From TrEMBL:
<keyword id="KW-0697">Rotamase</keyword>
<keyword id="KW-0413">Isomerase</keyword>
<dbReference type="GO" id="GO:0016018">
    <property type="term" value="F:cyclosporin A binding"/>
</dbReference>
<feature type="domain" description="PPIase cyclophilin-type">
    <location>
        <begin position="49"/>
        <end position="204"/>
    </location>
</feature>
<dbReference type="GO" id="GO:0003755">
    <property type="term" value="F:peptidyl-prolyl cis-trans isomerase activity"/>
</dbReference>
<dbReference type="GO" id="GO:0006457">
    <property type="term" value="P:protein folding"/>
</dbReference>
<dbReference type="InterPro" id="IPR002130">
    <property type="entry name" value="Cyclophilin-type_PPIase_dom"/>
</dbReference>
<dbReference type="Pfam" id="PF00160">
    <property type="entry name" value="Pro_isomerase"/>
</dbReference>
<dbReference type="InterPro" id="IPR029000">
    <property type="entry name" value="Cyclophilin-like_dom_sf"/>
</dbReference>
<comment type="function">
    <text>PPIases accelerate the folding of proteins. It catalyzes the cis-trans isomerization of proline imidic peptide bonds in oligopeptides.</text>
</comment>
<comment type="similarity">
    <text>Belongs to the cyclophilin-type PPIase family.</text>
</comment>
<dbReference type="InterPro" id="IPR024936">
    <property type="entry name" value="Cyclophilin-type_PPIase"/>
</dbReference>
<protein>
    <recommendedName>
        <fullName>Peptidyl-prolyl cis-trans isomerase</fullName>
        <ecNumber>5.2.1.8</ecNumber>
    </recommendedName>
</protein>
<dbReference type="GO" id="GO:0005737">
    <property type="term" value="C:cytoplasm"/>
</dbReference>
Length: 207
């Protein structure tokens, strides 16, 4: 089932990605760089680390946008540090990265100098395995800072609609941490975690 990513439906048409589909459950794209998110649950003192591998060859713009927002090395100095996971959908996905609207998830700001949105590189990567990290798109179909991590093996509803650009690695908390976030108590109707789950630090890692 497709999750809700905001109040308005995405205006851009769904594209047919079958002709150039990359199936990561069979042959994942090459990880060209790695980043980390240190995630803190309100109830616990110590943060847990989530490590994500990025597909810089298959998805260069989306991957670098995410990496730059982890490192804070973009012209605007924007970073995921201090933002929250604003939606947790058990058995489906977790959503975060809403720079500029950290508690609502209604919008985000990219790594570009003015925070402008930009179109996805492509929709080549199928959502066929858990742990894929994909860009949330705004009502115009473009990418900002928001992202989601899928927790189901088959998220075919996302194919041709959302651009996958990375995958959760088993370093750090891995998928156990992602599932832990997805299963927290939430407030309806937005499915926002009742207790804040905050990215307290983030950055680039050596491959």
């Amino acid at each position: 089932m497709a999750p809700a990513f905001g109040r308005r439906a995405i205006a851009a048409d769904v594209v047919d990605a079958k002709a150039t589909a990359i199936d990561p459950s069979v042959a994942p794209p090459r990880v060209t760089s790695k980043v980390y998110l240190d995630v803190k649950f309100a109830k616990y003192k110590e943060p847990k680390r989530l490590v994500i591998g990025l597909f810089g060859e298959a998805m260069p713009r989306a991957a670098e946008n995410f990496a730059s927002l982890c490192a804070g090395d973009n012209a605007g100095g924007r970073s995921y540090a201090g933002t929250r996971f604003y939606r947790a959908l058990s058995g489906n996905s977790i959503q975060g990265g809403a720079i500029g609207s950290p508690n609502t998830g209604r919008s985000g700001l990219s790594s570009l100098e003015d925070g402008a949105t930009f179109p996805p590189d492509n929709f080549d990567i199928k959502h066929s395995t858990q742990g894929l990290v994909s860009a949330v798109r705004n009502p115009n179909g473009e990418i900002d800072s928001r992202f989601f991590v899928q927790t189901e093996d088959d998220a075919g509803w996302a194919d041709g609609r959302y651009a996958a650009f990375g995958i959760v690695l088993e370093e750090g908390g891995g998928m156990d941490l992602v599932r832990r976030i997805s299963n927290v108590d939430v407030q309806t109707p937005q499915n926002s975690p009742k207790d804040p789950i905050t990215i307290v630090a983030c950055g680039r890692l050596d491959v």
